[in-house]
Amino acid sequence: MKNRTRNMLLYDKPILVLCFAILLTIILTVMSLIYKRNFEGKNEQLRNRLSEMQALSRDVIKIKAAVESKEVKIGLKKAAGIVSALEQILKTQGLEAKIIKPLGQTKIDEFSEDNAELEIEDTDLNGIVNLLYKIDISPVPLKLKAASVRSTFENPDKFILKLTVSLMSRG
Question: Does the global pTM surpass 0.70?
């Protein structure tokens, strides 16, 4: 019986082809299932990454909108000259400058920095503090680079203030 089965499997061509076809079908089915699981796992990973990227994209859009609104608010796109910005601040404080002179402009990447020197005589400490505060909260992007405060000989309660201020602008 063993011999007969062996002869039938090895020498009977239709049965041999049928056995190879069944064996090949089983192998291909197993391989297809393995690849299917592998591709489903990769597909799930890619879906997770896509949802993370979409969430980050929404965050970037929100941040970009906030930055653009701040730029418009502070006038970073179109800033007036440093001298006119300082004169407006001085006018709101009721102070007069002895000297306001532009010192030049430097370019840093896509931004330019316009420098000016400001000198105010006969002011009190309250006026100095208020002026520095107004420069700090100014709608134009001003940066205080140097400050010097000296008292006068005639009246020790009055001071001479020298500032070097920069206006940051795009362009």
Answer: no
